[in-house]
Every structure is written in structure tokens, then in C-alpha cells.
Amino acid sequence: MSGHVAAIYRHPVKGFTPERLNHVDLAPGEGFPHDRVWAVENGPSGYDPDAPTFTPKQKFTVLAAIPKVAAARTRYDETTGVMTAEAPGAPAFAGRLDDADAREAFAAWLTEFLDADDLRGPLKVVDARGPFRFTDHPLGQVSVINMASVRDLSEKMGVELDPLRFRGNLYVEGWPPWVENEWGGRELMVGWARAKVFKPIVRCAAIEVDPTTAVRDLEVVKALFDNYAHMFCGIYIQMTTTGRVGLGDAITAPQ
After folding, report:
1. pTM of the model
2. Distance between CA 34 and CA 204 in Å, rounded?
3. Is the predicted pLDDT of residue 110 greater than 70, yes or no?
4. Nearest CA-CA partner of 15 in 41, 34, 36
5. Could you tell me the domains of the chain?
6. Residue 255 — pLDDT band, cuts 50, 70, 90?
7. Which residues contact 11 (CB under 8 A, 6 or more apart)?
């Protein structure tokens, strides 16, 4: 069963702005490049950058808890290492998050922008090391969204859902809706690389936030359960060979 890659995104800071790419190089045991390499603690989380281990997303400033995060527009320049951020009513921020002073400055910028009631403690920017990434599942290397599934859910809800609500890495056209939920353990060809499907992605309240308006406006999780008796949308895959994946490349599951 063949589809093609319709869009590629990374999210350099967990919970913040998705960035569109033309291609990406993926490898076994490596995180998605420049994806979720930083996160912002909402009060002490216990995360230790020198010994990185999975930390629940509830410990960070994520959309599931703070919809206003979507109103901050961030952008990472991998050539210079500079991240910029803008938000309504706030001055622009720019700094290299590999620098401790810049991390503190970004945390201060966010503290001023976010509502005090949403803050459980001091904000602190933390970083991933090596292949570690701040994914919602410790074994979820690359997330894949089937655009047909999003459209089917949209039809059931009577609205047009922005696929970016689902914060995927690869968006696929050409698969029938929801077929991906049955592919656990199956191998895929992904561009010029191979991968294995790990599991469907269980969804949380983050997908109920409109990524453009930063408002929690739709009960998408409830709609998934009411219409399909599950809360899945998308799959995690794990790379088994190294290769480049570009827009328009085939993404194929053997019959």
C-alpha cells in the first residue's frame, strides 16, 4: 500500500511552533533532527540533561495544559543556532539556546508572556543530549499522520481540522483512512529508508487547541472515542536503516 510524503515538520521546542522542511535525514537510534531538542519546565521536573530520561509532558509548557503556548511563534535557524520568538504584546526574542544566558532569557520572556495562573513554578529551558528527544513516548522516534484519517475525523465532526493540531513529523497522502492503526510491527519504506511501525499515537488535550488562534475550541479526543471507540491519530515509527526522506517520496507498507 503506497502513499507519499505530503509534508515534513520539526518542532525544535516541545509544544511550540512546527517548522516545515523539504527533506530530512533519518537513522536508526537517532532522534528526528532538531525536533523536540528543547523543552520548558513548568516548575522543577526532575529532568537531568546529563542523564536524560523520559519525563512526562505534563512537566513542561505544552498545549495540553497551556493553550496560550500556541500564540508564541518560534523559529530555529540551524545554521546560526539562533532561535527567535514573537508573540502578541511581547517584544521579540532571539538567542542561542545552547547558551545558558539565552536559555534564561527565553524562560524570562515566556514568564512575562504566559498567564501567571498557568505557571506551577519557575520556567526553565532544558535540552536533550545525543539521540534523546522530548517525545511524548520514550520510543516514539518519528510520528506519522495519515491525512485521510484527519479528513475522515473532520467529516464526522462537521469541521475542518488543521492537521497541524496533531504535531506530526511526516504527513502522508494516499493511504485509506485509519488503516495505519492496524500496522503495529509492520515494515515501511519511507523515502530511501526503512522503518518499522511501533504503535498508534494516543491523543490528549493538545489536539483540542487551534494552532492558529491558540484557543481550546474543539473536543477532538472525545470525537475520536465517540466515532471510532479509540483515541488514536497517527503512528510512531522507528527507523531500521539510514536514508533521506523528501517531499513527494513514497511511503509504502508491504501488502
Report:
1. 0.97
2. 23
3. yes
4. 36
5. 2-31+136-252 (2.40.33.20), 38-127 (no CATH)
6. low
7. 17, 18, 19, 35, 36, 167
